[in-house]
Amino acid sequence: MTKRAILCGLVLAVVFGATAARAQEKLEIFSWWAGDEGPALKALIDRYEVLYPNIPVINSTVTGGSGVNARAVLKTRMLGGDPPDSFQVHAGQELIGTWVVANRMEDLTPLFKSEGWTEKFPPGLIALLSARGGIWSVPVNIHRSNVMWYVPANLKKWGVTPPKTWDEFLATCKTLQGKGVQYPLALGENWTQVHLWESVALGVLGPDGWSALWSGKMKFTDSSAVKAWDTFGSVLACTNPDASGLSWQQAVDRTLKGNAAFNIMGDWAAGYMSTTLKLKPGEGFGWAASPGTSGTFMMLSDSFGLPKGVKHHDAAVKWLKLLGSREGQDIFNPLKGSIAARLDSDLTKYNAYLNSAAKDWKSNKVVGSLAHGAVAPEIFASQFGTVMEIYLGGKNALAAANAAQAIADQVGLGK
Ligand code: GAL
Q: In this structure, which residue's CA is closest to atom 7 in ligand 1?
């Protein structure tokens, strides 16, 4: 073989080798944002593919509000040694109490430092993401849990206003029933019932009482915490009996169609109504803090983490960099119905609802959500579903309170 032929062969090998290596590069992200919940994630993926045209994105989703189904699939994959390159997880205890404790996640502190994120995110949020000397996920947003949604024209027609306390809500419920609105508050499947419970408990206990439950300073058997279950029971009497068969979107739809007057749901409902259904905030839908919680912002944050031993590490780091950037957050959040986790987002890109949320986020007292992973470890949060079943079965507030306290003791909540 001539020298020239050998050289040619080498060049070809290098070129084809590089192409093959590039062709193998890809990114698999895992989340529960599919269907109606998908557009914000899709916009972020589109941007990623523009920035990195050689890295195709595999968007693995497992449908089901609040990640109830996705978490189970993720568990199988993590334990089976097949982690996605990056996965959605709620900031806080949901990740820390599971995969961080199990030593399955990469510490992202170096990334936070190199990207300057320690100054770009609120200190309270960084604290929520931190444990055991590390920072464990990149927050893409801030959602609010304690929001009550309604259609302004419908309330006007029925002659009611958004109730400011739970007592006022119960009175409004009677008024509405008198006007033929049989089930004034639209409710959906099990996790949305926990979601409603946390708004009721926050309204009954106030922000300090609520936080005391999670730090272990207040017991679930405390008389005020038992009262939260009783109030919850009265509120349930104003909801549709077919709740367990409805997704959160279907519960929102009931309100929009005028079958119900109100729905309590996190502000991804604003994303659904404005992005998917194209309704104008303030006209097509209205909002207020859930009864008794004005001045308090019950927060949760969606974030993405980096499991140890992923197949496409560099591509995953690029993904995390995009979703932690100002540009990434301002692409994602206006569509998602959340505000940016960063402190420097461009609010002109956000609609009227989101601007009001951003204002409250700055000025309100902030507490964390149970239903969405902020305040309690996964093991408590998942067993709380059983506490809910116990309550729904017998409507016995003390039995539910005792069951919750037993789980809290068992998992060492607040310790
Ligand atoms: C929450 C999540 C939101 C939204 C919602 C409904 O837990 O943080 O981003 O997806 O579930 O599925």
A: 66
Q: Which two tokens stand for residue 267?
A: 């502000």
Note the helical H segments in 179-302.
190-215, 223-236, 248-256, 268-271
What confidence category does residue 415 fall into, taking pLDDT thresholds of 50, 70 and 90? Answer: confident
Angstrom distances, CA of residue 254 to CA of 238, 250, 356: 14, 6, 24
pTM above 0.85, yes or no: yes
CA atoms of 283 and 98, how far apart (whole Å)? 42
What is the pLDDT, as a whole number, of residue 5? 53
Mean residue pLDDT of the chain comes to 95
Q: Fold match between 27-143+299-368 and 144-298+372-411?
A: yes
Residue type for position 330:
D
Sheet with 143-144, side-by-side order of all strands: 143-144, 296-300, 365-368
Q: Which residues contact 295 (CB under 8 A, 6 or more apart)?
A: 289, 364, 365
Distance 93 CA to ligand 1 centre (A): 16
The confidence score (pLDDT) of residue 18 equals: 47
d(CA 210, CA 298): 10
Cα 65 to middle of ligand 1, angstroms: 6
> Quick one: how far is CA 175 from the chain centroid?
33
- Calculate mean pLDDT across residues 272-286: 98
300 Cβ below 6 A of ligand 1: yes
Contact criterion met (CB below 8 Å) for 29 and 319: yes
Q: Domain 144-298+372-411 belongs to what topology?
A: D-Maltodextrin-Binding Protein; domain 2 (3.40.190)
Q: What CATH code would you report for 27-143+299-368? A: 3.40.190.10
Cα 315 from Cα 23, distance rounded (Å): 13
- Distant-in-sequence, close-in-space partners of 387: CB < 8 Å, separation ≥ 6: 400, 403, 404, 407
- Map out the domains of the chain as residue ranges: 27-143+299-368, 144-298+372-411
How far does residue 63's CA lie from ligand 1's centre (Å)? Answer: 11
Cα(248)–Cα(333) distance, integer angstroms: 19
**What pLDDT, on a 0 to 100 scale, did the predictor assign at position 414?**
86
The model's pLDDT over 159-186, given as tens digits with 9 standing for 90+, comes to: 999 999 999 999 999 999 999 999 999 9
Q: What percent of the chain has pLDDT over 70?
A: 94
